[in-house]
Design goal:
6-stranded mixed β-sheet, alpha/beta, Rossmann fold
Length: about 250
């Protein structure tokens, strides 16, 4: 199936009710989107007039300082956030990976959590058992796979969460700040799973501050600043511009 994302002149704002010192909210800091002060509400302009056209084969990275609009644009690309103006068209099955640990139920076993992940991802009932056994083997948890997640150490929970990547499927992969595992053995497994995940997706949109990750997994870099596209082009070229710009801000 052909995958596609078309965003035309899209703008997204968040609104907050004004409080006592809200008039000072318009002061511009080093980070964050522009804040407009209205009569009753504050408007945080997360994205302004964004246009983006992605097709099968595209691998796009997002960079920008905190509050530049990266996470908001990812949510728009994932169909998880509506725009106030402009339009967005998405074709293809979306796999949003904003936080790999989200949805984990601590009172349920690793096995039951894997089964629930299968159901969430739309895995056919006949294939769930096989996929769950794959997760168990990858995690290396042994008998702990049958125990409640609340009994896991941080490292064991990390192993389960990372192994659940095996269940992820989608034409459009949307990732926010990839999470590294705690120990070398898990990192090796995660790297392999991530490679497979990205290779199987038709479109990748990934936000990261890491030059290495962006160079390894993306081909085009989109630089966001205060909710607007500041530059877009080859990763090496745009990252060099971004790095130079960041140095002038120190």
């Amino acid at each position: 199936m052909t995958a596609r994302i078309e965003i035309e002149n899209a703008s997204v704002s968040y609104f907050m009710r004004k409080t006592g010192n809200s008039e000072k909210a318009s002061e511009q800091g080093a980070v964050g989107a522009q804040i407009l002060v209205g009569k009753r509400y504050l408007e945080i302009t997360a994205l302004r007039n964004i246009s983006l056209s992605l097709k099968t084969g595209d691998r796009v990275g997002l960079i920008g300082i905190n509050g530049s609009g990266k996470s908001t644009l990812l949510k728009v690309c994932a169909g998880a956030l509506a725009v106030q103006s402009g339009s967005i068209t998405i074709e293809g099955r979306i796999s949003p990976q904003f936080a790999l640990g989200s949805g984990i139920k601590p009172d349920l076993s690793g096995r039951r959590n894997a089964e629930l992940k299968c159901l969430y991802m739309g895995t056919p009932q006949s294939k769930i058992a096989g996929h769950v056994e794959e997760v168990k083997e990858l995690s290396g948890l042994g008998g702990y796979f049958e125990l409640p997640v609340r009994s896991y150490s941080a490292g064991m929970r990390s192993r389960l969460v990372m192994s659940l990547m095996r269940l992820v499927r989608g034409d459009i992969l949307v990732m926010d700040e990839w999470i590294s595992a705690a120990d070398a053995s898990v990192n090796k497994t995660v790297s392999k799973l991530q490679s497979e995940l990205i290779a199987s997706s038709s479109i990748l949109v990934m936000a990261s501050h890491s030059q290495r990750i962006l160079e390894d997994w993306t081909e085009t870099l989109l630089w966001l600043d205060r909710g607007e596209v500041k530059a877009m082009g080859p990763v090496s070229e745009i990252y060099a511009e971004y790095k130079k710009w960041m140095e002038t801000r120190k």
